[in-house]
Amino acid sequence: MIKQETITEAMYNAIRLGATRMPPDIRAALQKALAEETEPMAKKHLEVSLQNADMSEKGNGLVCADTGFPMYFVHAGRKTEVEGGFNTIYECAAAATARATAECFLRPTMVDPLTRKNPGDNIGPGMPKVELIFDRDDDSLEILAAPKGGGSEIFGTFYRMMFPADGKAGIKKFVIECIKDACYAGKVCPPAIIGVGIGGTADLCMSLAKKAALLRPVGSHHPDPEVAALETELYNACRKLGIGPMGSRGINAVLAINLDTAVTHTAALPVAVNAQCLVGRRWIARIDGKGNINYSGDLA
Amino acid sequence: MKNIRLPMSPEDAAGLKLGEMVTVSGMLFTGRSRFHIRAIEDDIYPEIDYEKINCFFHVGPVMRQNGDAWEVVSCEPTSSIRFERYGADVVRKFNLRTLIGKTTMGQATAQALKETGGVFLSKIGLSGNALRDQVKKVHEVHFLDELGKTECTWIYEVDHFGPFFVAIDASGRNYFEELAAEANARMPEVEQDLDIPADYRYTEVNG
Q1: Does residue B200 fall inside a structural domain?
Q2: Which pTM value belongs to this model?
Q3: Which of A19, A142, A252, B59 could bridge A191 with an S-S bond, Cβ 3.0-4.6 Å?
């Protein structure tokens, strides 16, 4: 049985660490991009961003001051037991988010969409976003906290319902056009991690795209060789656009293009794109069945 | 690298080249969407001397209160292109010659800046922590209760603030629009690499 206070503590620390540290795979990918770029401005954008993360990791500020949408992806196992039941995880997430906001690790950014009123604690209907994923066999709980920046979410979200006749050419055209638009003037803060969902319903398609962008380590590939080949093809093509870090002249508009699929209607070919920004903020708290918490920036 | 004193003189602005890196020193005010909408739609805006505090920094900083004093935790420029609907009117209303933000702004704002002899400076990388260290003093805050810490207007005194680069110069040239034209010109070749036929069209289902 995992206690409620353990979950709240794990969520608070995960979102705090997410806002103040750069995950190791993201740092390595940015350093590789820095080595590849030749234009002075492209290099400068990356150098400054890495220095900014260094300052934050030394306890001096944030990886990015737009801590954006507070999100938690919670993986549970068949044998996982939560004190008070799984519903309490939503309360834990709200408490963790409010504390991180009060302590200035998160900016008060969530507002009512119509009145624009800001409650000041990032809490409201639907926020923080918590997604429960029952995909484990053990008694653990794994929490990935992602303060997802506005730039990537606002300027990096696209959806198109295509049709079987539009084929792979349609998918590729849509994705490459989205990347070009998203990177214009550095809107999504490139080099971005591009998640692409193909198939499912509209909401499932977008969820696939978001998880492909947020829940996969940079450099990984989809297990299906055909999907993985499409990832590589799009990644290589994207590097020829001439778009680099923060929309400057360069090579690295993206750090990765991650695809995922779901079966869909025989009449349909839905495609969704969701971007993550260059700092790829996330931190993970792994709680075992006895309540011990381990923190890491690495995805398994 | 040039360090330019704020308020920026028309001569200093005219001397800045497109793409040039620059820092600024002096007084600035902050704001985001709510500043723009209220200033133009409702004629509500902070009562400050815009001739002296003439630099508009597009940002929602993270601010911490220590007793009566406010300190900046981090301040990352926000995407200015979002404000394009009101950008030109705001530049003209306050006779602004310096905008600092992220991304770029559109042709209407570029035209207004040409009229005031002003420039748009865009951020370099993510630099909110270095920028915080260059804020020497938080002088005032306006509309904190109404708008909250993120959307309200802060008055900062900054020293060697930046670097930023000139994304719209005083003649109205736009760095990113020129880059976008280059990327658009490369698209046919990129699409060819992806085996997308040159005459490809998505299936059209609307009248």
Answers
A1: no
A2: 0.97
A3: A252
Report the CATH number at residue B7: 3.20.130.10
- Decide if A118 and B79 are in contact by the 8 Å CB cutoff: no
Question: Could you tell me where in chain A the CATH 3.30.360 domains are found?
Answer: 4-21+63-149+280-296
Q: Regarding the domain delimited by A4-21+63-149+280-296, which CATH topology (the fold level of the hierarchy) does it fall under?
A: Dihydrodipicolinate Reductase; domain 2 (3.30.360)
Phi/psi of residue A82, nearest 5 degrees: -115, 130
Q: What single-letter DSSP state applies at residue B102?
A: B
Distance CA B185, CA A300 (A): 40
Q: What is the pLDDT of residues A73-129, one digit of tens each?
A: 999 999 999 999 999 999 999 999 999 999 999 999 999 999 999 999 999 999 999
Q: Is residue B207 part of a domain?
A: no
Q: What is the ipTM of this complex?
A: 0.96
Considering CB atoms only, which of B21, B76, B205 is closest to A66? B76
Check if A23 contacts B (Cβ < 8 Å). no
How far apart are alpha carbons B152 and B142 in whole angstroms? 6
Q: Which residues pair with B56 in a beta bridge?
A: B29, B99
Count up the domains in chain B and report the number: 1
User: Tokens representing B164?
Assistant: 């930023």
**In DSSP terms, which residues pair with B156 in a beta bridge?**
B28, B138
Does A229 contact chain B (CB < 8 Å)? Answer: no
Is B202 inside any structural domain?
no
Token output for B201: 């069209």
